[in-house]
Amino acid sequence: MLYKITGWAAIALSLVALFPSHQTGALSVIGFYICLFSLLIGAFASHLGHYFYYRTVFFVALMNVFIINDGTHFMLLIEQSDWVYIGSMYGIFVVVGSICSFLIRREDTAQLNQKRYETSQNKLSP
Q: d(Cα 108, Cα 74) in Å, to the nearest integer?
């Protein structure tokens, strides 16, 4: 029950992060970091194999960073804006997304290994 509530809270937070991301200036940075925080919450909610929460939050975060966010949307690369800022924000997003994906896969692997261990022990015992 806790993970379900946390998962829906992560989805709601990622949707709320869309509004400040659309604004100019510091609000777009605040929206970007709220989006990253919602990724971490989504990873926490999805560690028991319920990947719906993390996938939904990750999809909203991708839209937020590459399309909606005023400071990092993809069209700024074509307009030759501040490439260092945009690249660093993309780098931060990739690192946090990779860490969250690794945490989910690690928990999934541990659960699969536990199930494999239990089935092998059941086959060995008479």
A: 33
Residue 50 near residue 110, CB atoms below 8 Å: no
Q: Kindly state the tokens that stand for 45.
A: 């909610």
User: How many domains is the chain partitioned into structurally?
Assistant: 1
Q: What torsion, rounded to 10 degrees, do the Cα atoms 28, 94, 39, 24 define?
A: 0
Residue 25: which pLDDT band, with cuts at 50, 70 and 90? confident
CB atoms within 10 A of CB 68: 18
User: Containing domain of residue 79, as a range?
Assistant: 2-124
Cα torsion angle, 53, 55, 60, 62, sign: positive
Sign of the alpha-carbon torsion through 60, 98, 53, 25: negative
